[in-house]
Amino acid sequence: MDTPLIELVGVKKSFGPVDVLKGIDFKAYAGKVTALVGDNGAGKSTLIKGLSGVQPFDEGTVRFDGHDVHIVNPKQASNLGIEVVYQDLALCENLDIVQNMFLGREEVAMGTLDEAAMEFAATKALQSLSVRTVKSVRQKVSSLSGGQRQTVAIGRTVLRNAKLVILDEPTAALGVAQTEQVLNLVRRLADNGIGVIIISHNLADVFQVADFISVLYLGGMVASLATADTNYNDVVGYITGTKSLEGAAS
Amino acid sequence: MKSTLLKTARELRAVWMLLIVSLILFIATPLFLTGPNLLNVLLATSVTALLAAGQTFVIIIGEIDLSVGAVLGISGAVTAITLQTQPLLIGLAVGLGVGALAGLINGVLVTFLRMPSFIATLGSTSVLAGLTLFITQGNPIRVANEGFLAIGQSRPLDVPMPVWIVLAVVVIFGVLLARTRFGRYVYATGDNAEASRLSGIKVYRVKILAFMISGILASIAGFILTARLGTAQPTAGTGLELAAIAAVIIGGTSLAGGRGALIGTFIGAILLGVIDNGLNLLNVSPFLQGVVKGFVILFAVFLDRNSDLMRGLWKMLGSLRPKRPATPSTPATPQEPELASRH
Ligand SMILES: Nc1ncnc2c1ncn2[C@@H]1O[C@H](COP(=O)(O)OP(=O)(O)O)[C@@H](O)[C@H]1O
Ligand SMILES: [Mg+2]
């Protein structure tokens, strides 16, 4: 296997007396989907917030593209090429799709917004993901379904030339058909060469879309597996703590 | 199609109301639709329009600025005092500086000190109004500077200077709000501050700047009022914040933040002016005029807060019309935009 796109070594994070991440090792690769699974409170969101700079880690090494990096704010993560699609979809309801996709990095010509250029680029980004579910890129987000909103949020990462896209529970609020759509989108992201980390509670989704599965249990990484080499029951065992990597029940 | 229509209905609400009120006045009195009278309306509206223009930025970011009347008052007084010893440009700079500083303080109270803007600007209103009374010792301050008086009294091309100023402000700040990055961030901040922050927008900066714009435009309103009267009154501007907020809401800007437009505010301000003017032309008792305007304001806020209800009624009316033959060009859409919930 070539060098990981992102590699965490011995990463720690605590909130006051509570150790939430207790020395995590983790890897994800370009062009692959790595699922991060674990029970509620295992520390998945905390791990993601560290990677995205929202809540920097306390200790440990983060290597991106082979270089040591110290990510302390979202802007810096974004400059490296790390983009996050948050659980509660950070979109503005009253802005349209183009405006949301370009939020925070609008294109400007002669001091004013270059709407035509942005519309063109947004349309192209959505096409690169073969998105056909939105009627007009000038629709307001408030008029979109949950799946369409995920599409906008994912399209935005493409627009920003993300190298690593992290999705926190992208299918949690979706029905069957829309979940399928979003998983296809996730797969297409990876097929375009982007590294993808997906957090999910739904193991069916995980087994459908992921190349690798990493399991967090109470703030520790208890297993990192290739999807092809494992099965549903083993993963459930790691998640619930009835199984550890050595195979011994704990 | 339908959604575009409804969307514009919101933005054009003030236009409809203005047309209806104007039509009524046109029928009721021949005095209304004359060039001089309409210019009078615009002139009388200029102060409210400027306060409302600044207020629009603040309301779109999801806050409110109750201090605009008091900022107007103190800027007028400070400028008048400065002009007693200093040339015009210094007087204007000091007045604008006072407005910008007041806005900066309001912005800092709301962002870094996390105060609700309602309370913070109510507090600064009290402070500023008190300071104005103190520095004027409760007396009007006469202004003799010809250049300054021209701001309120000259008529280039036979149009009063305040009207030119308002038009310039509407164009410049309208472009700022609708066509620049900062303007986009104003909408985004009021829409979803957390999403904006995660997108790398410095939300606190946007909010402080919005309050500063409100303060600066209130200063300019203070110049106009002072120059028109030839004196700075110690209680100038008192209560004008309500008219300004009313113009913004009537103009279709949502009190919930994230939506609105400067042109709507401008039309909202004109509508209030037209109503004032009409009540005068029709010799309605001044005691009743406040009542009428109060109802207009309440009606506008009702429309703002119940736009979903109104849309529902609108749809019901639509469904009462005879159905056209099936339209194969519109396959079932996954969801009706009208039903999308806000907040
Ligand atoms: N800001 C915080 N302050 C204190 N405790 C926190 C904070 N964020 C998360 N935690 C705690 O850290 C643990 C892991 O949370 P989280 O990363 O959200 O888990 P997950 O996303 O896997 O469900 C939980 O016990 C949670 O209560
Ligand atoms: Mg979580």
TrEMBL record, chain A:
GO MF annotation list: ATP binding; ATP hydrolysis activity
UniProtKB keywords: ATP-binding, Nucleotide-binding
ABC transporter domain segment(s): 6-243
UniProt key word Amino-acid biosynthesis: no
PROSITE patterns per UniProt: ABC_TRANSPORTER_2
Protein name according to UniProt: D-xylose transport system ATP-binding protein
Species whose genome carries this gene: Alpinimonas psychrophila
Taxonomic classification: Bacteria, Bacillati, Actinomycetota, Actinomycetes, Micrococcales
TrEMBL record, chain B:
Superkingdom as given in the UniProt entry: Bacteria
The keyword Membrane belongs to this UniProt entry's keyword annotation: yes
Keywords of the record: Cell membrane, Membrane, Transmembrane, Transmembrane helix
CDD domains xrefs: TM_PBP1_transp_AraH_like
A single GO molecular function term of this UniProt record: transmembrane transporter activity
InterPro entries attached to this UniProt entry: ABC_transp_permease
Chain positions covered by the region annotation Disordered: 322-343
Residue ranges of the TM segments: 12-33, 39-59, 66-83, 89-112, 119-139, 159-178, 206-225, 257-275, 287-303
UniProt-listed Pfam families: BPD_transp_2
Compartments where found: Cell membrane
Gene Ontology CC: plasma membrane
Membrane topology: Multi-pass membrane protein
The protein, known as: Ribose transport system permease protein
Organism of derivation: Alpinimonas psychrophila
